[in-house]
Amino acid sequence: MIELISIAQGIIERGMLFSLLGAGVYIASDIVHFDNLAVEGAFSLGGGLTAVLLAAGVNPWLALLGGALIGTISGIVTGLLTTHLKLNNLISGIVVTTCAFSLTLVIAGSNKAVRTENTIFNSLLSAQFAPYHTLIALTLLTTACVSTLHWLLHTEVGMVLRAAGSAPQMVTNLGKRVNAYVMLGLALSNTLAALCGSLYVQYAGYFSIWTSVGMLVIGLAGKILGQTLQQGLGWGLIAGSVLYQLIVAVTFEFQINPDLNKLITGLLIVALMVVKQGMTQKRGYHVNS
C-alpha cells in the first residue's frame, strides 16, 4: 500500500512539473499559432544553467529565476529570427534548439550532479512536511503559474496576444505591432519550458543533456490529453500531464522496454490527434445540422 502511494505521488509530481512544459507548448501553438521547436532547447538551457548555479552554491530560487530568464532570451531570439530575418517558423525553432544544445554543453557539459539538499523543495516548507515537500511545492508553483497565465490571457494584453496569432490584421488595425506580440508569446513559451527544465534538475538531482531530447513530445502529449478534458489553459492541462505520466508508469508496470517510450508517446499523440479531429468534426456536424 505504501509503495502504491509512493508511485502515485511520483506520477502526480512529474505531471505537475511537466504541465509547465505543456503550458509552454500551448502558448506557442494555440495562442500565437507558432510551431515552436525551440522548446527543447529552452528546456536544456534552463536545466543546464540551473545545475551550474546550484553547483556554485547559488540560492536555488535565484537559480530557478536564472534558468527561466535564459529561456526568455531564447524565446526572444526565436521571435527575432522569424519576425525580422523572416525565417520559417520551423527553421527558427530548429536553429535556436541546435544552438541552445551547443551552448548548454559549453555551460554545463553533458552531465552534472546536483546536491538534493540545495533545492527549492527543501527550502520552501518546514521539516514537518518532509515526505511531501516536493508534491506541495510543485502543486503550489504549478497552480500559481497556470493561474497567472490564465489571468494574463484574459487581460487586454492577452486578448491582443490571441489576435496576433489568429487575426494579425486586426492587431495592425488597432495600432499594435504584431511582431512584438509574437515575440512576447514565444518568450512566454520558452520561459515556461526553461522553468520546467530548471525544476526538473532540482527535482531529479542531476542534469543530462540527453534528458532534453523528446521533451517537446512530452509537452505536446500532455497538452493534447488536457484539451480532451478541458479546452483552454486550466486544470485540464495539469490533469492531462498527470494522465500522460500515468500512461508512462503503466508501460513500466507491464515491463515494456523503456527504449520504446518515445515510440509509444508518438503513437499516442497520433491516436489522440485522430480522436480530437473526430470530436471536432462531430461537433461541427451537430452545429451545422
How would you describe the overall organization of this protein?
- The protein is mainly alpha-helical.
- The protein has a single domain (2-260), classed as ABC transporter involved in vitamin B12 uptake, BtuC (Orthogonal Bundle).
- Helix content is 75%, strand content 2%.
- It has a two-stranded antiparallel sheet.
- Helix 1 (2-31) packs parallel to helix 5, helix 2 (39-55) packs parallel to helix 4 (89-108) and helix 2 (39-55) packs across helix 8.
- The chain starts with a helix and ends with a helix.
- The model has no long low-confidence stretch (mean pLDDT 86).
List the helices and strands and how they pair.
Layout: H1 2-31, H2 39-55, H3 60-83, H4 89-108, E1 111-113, H5 133-152, H6 156-166, H7 168-173, H8 178-204, E2 206-208, H9 215-229, H10 235-253, H11 261-288
Antiparallel strand pairs: 1-2
Helix pairs in contact: 1-5, 1-8, 1-9, 1-10, 2-3, 2-4, 2-8, 3-4, 3-8, 6-8, 9-10, 9-11
What attributes characterize this protein structure?
mainly alpha, globular, 2% strand, ABC transporter involved in vitamin B12 uptake, BtuC, 289 residues
Q: How would you summarize what this structure contains?
A:
By secondary structure, this protein is an all-alpha fold.
What general outline do the C-alpha atoms trace?
globular
Distance between the termini: 51 Å
Number of strand segments: 2
Widest β-sheet, arrangement of strands: 1-2
What is the CATH fold-level name?
ABC transporter involved in vitamin B12 uptake, BtuC
Please state roughly what percent of the residues sit in beta strands, choosing from under 5%, 5-15%, 15-25%, 25-35%, 35-45% or over 45%. Answer: under 5%
Mean pLDDT: 86
Low-confidence segments, given as residue ranges, are none
The CATH level-2 architecture is identified as Orthogonal Bundle
CATH class: Mainly Alpha
> How big is the Rg?
19 Å
Q: Could you give the order of the helices and strands?
A: HHHHEHHHHEHHH
Helix/strand class = mainly alpha
When the domains are counted, the total is 1
- Helix content percent band: over 70%
Give the biggest sheet. Answer: 2 strands, antiparallel
Q: How many DSSP helices?
A: 11
